[in-house]
Amino acid sequence: MGVSVMRVRGYALIVGNDVDTDTIIPARYLHRSEPEWLGEHVFDDAPGIKGRLNTTPKPVAIVAGDGFGYGSSREHAVVALKAAGVAVVVAKSFHRIFYRNAINNGLPVVEADLVEVRDCELVLVDLAGGTITASSGCTRRIKPIPPQILEILECGGLKEVLRKLASEHHRT
Amino acid sequence: MDSLALRILAKHSGASAVEPGEIVYARVDKVMINDVTGPMALSVLADAGAEDLVNPDKVEVHVVMDHYSPPHNWDSANAHRRLRDFSRKYGCVLHDVGSGVAHQLLAEGIVKPGDLVVGADSHTLTYGALSSFATGIGSSEAAYAMAAGELWFKAPEPLYVEVRGRFHTGVTGKDLALHLLKVLGPVGALYRSVEFVGNGLRHVNMPDRLTVANMMVEAGAKTAIFPYDDVIEYWLRMHGVLPERMWRELTLDPGRPADIEVDLSELEPLIAEPPMPTRVRHVTDLEGTEVDLVFVGSCTNGRYEDMVALARVLKGRKVRARLIVIPASVRVLKQMVSEGVLNTLLEAGAVIGVPGCGPCFGAHMGVAGNSEVVVSTVNRNFPGRAGPPTAKVYLASPYTAAAAALTGRITDPRPLLAEHEWVCL
What we know:
The complex is a heterodimer.
Chain A: E1 7-16, H1 21-24, H2 35-40, H3 47-55, E2 60-64, H4 76-83, E3 86-91, H5 96-104, E4 109-111, E5 122-126, E6 131-134, E7 139-141, H6 147-155, H7 158-171
Parallel strand pairs in A: 1-2, 2-3, 3-4
Antiparallel strand pairs in A: 1-5, 5-6, 6-7
Chain B: H1 4-13, E1 23-27, E2 30-34, H2 38-47, E3 60-64, H3 74-90, E4 93-95, H4 102-105, E5 116-119, E6 133-136, H5 139-148, E7 150-154, E8 158-164, H6 173-184, E9 193-197, H7 206-215, E10 223-225, H8 230-238, E11 260-263, E12 270-272, E13 280-282, E14 293-297, H9 298-301, H10 304-314, E15 322-326, H11 330-338, H12 341-348, E16 351-352, E17 373-376, E18 392-395, H13 398-407, H14 414-419
Parallel strand pairs in B: 2-3, 2-5, 3-4, 5-6, 8-9, 8-11, 9-10, 14-15, 14-17, 15-16, 17-18
Antiparallel strand pairs in B: 1-7, 12-13
Helix pairs in contact in B: 2-5, 6-7, 10-12, 10-13
């Protein structure tokens, strides 16, 4: 994945406030964790979102209000979104475990209020430059992501950090 | 610096002090994974070649089979098999099928005051009732913490809640939790450490504190901590833990200004209507709503005292709604047997399940049918939490759940308790 996460683009999918992780991936699918399985069942119980997700060009930029990723710690929610073609989530605020899970899986998550953006608009997120631009002209400055978190994202996720830790351990 | 969370975090990161917002690497005392989040953590460890870094000398790892207990299909049975094999090979503490819910088991003498605990389950906050810093994480982070014995944390800003007064009969810690969620809303405590002070705390028993700490995540909290006192010490002794003198330092300045003040004597039975735990109403506002199914159990309200509350209402009576009862641990179940509570509930028409999460997360073991109404003592009522998305889940205390089971409608439990005031179990 490398530095590409520093500049990501996606077609907007507007989802509103308090989208919980049960809505993203219902509990009845959690006994399996293959990305294909989870991606197939993403938003199964929210047909209004799923229908638009299916017709939105890929990659997708989810644009949310407050409290995205409410609820359960299931990392399956992030895996499901990625498998369904989501490249970035922009929300006014995130629940903390979802935020951490996204970073740890190399999925950029950015805090910003994009209230003017509409479905299918192209959204460009430039983490290095600290800006978001939508095709309708809406622009935002992004609060800088702390370097420790950016490092995990740039590695491609926490698994890659762990891989380095393990190989250092095995060398010594 | 006052905040208990910041003090515990500083101690575990080797710093003299940490400030809210600061990112620190801190040593963790315990890591918990379960049968939903655990298999993914094991895959991360295997893919990263880091399995052999896991060892009990570095960090204590608890593996709990609670969500699919007993396993409901081939996939979950195979996930259990994998978790068991891993636990044996790498020295993890295994809590096998039927032991109970992680958040009850780890509160029964495993988590100690001052500990820093991470669990791959959002309700890990529960252990904050024992003056520990406990927070939920994902599977990759659990893998990292298991291998490295440490993890990064963003030091949380404290949010102080002052508690005074005492509960009236029929009002419990669940009503306090729902009251706080009503005040805070779904993001009102986002990233915060909710910390409790005030002379009312001496009237809030450990089961109620565990319930309150458990549910603060529904307002987005990172952790929720009760200061160390005699109530905690008594609970620990009951669970075979000898208190250490240094735990006495885990207190808060009682005179500090609070962000939220609660008088327990002003609380009434509350209920959260679907689809969010923060949509809280008075039980009396919804009285008469027909109820199909009642569930009493989970990491929020599956403790012995919750079962006693249920039995107090149901003693010598028969339920009208279907009632499923699942003790949060084997210890709770044994106490229900020895004290006669189990028999009271069976006589009333309850169905008893295997200690564990039961239907709480909506996958199996007692889910509802289309459009059915459920009154439940659990912590979440999002669509799909009781089975089909059209089923409606109302969150309430064991007393309110008992009243709903008895009458088949949402009912204020207080008059039912008054009639039964002198009945012994």
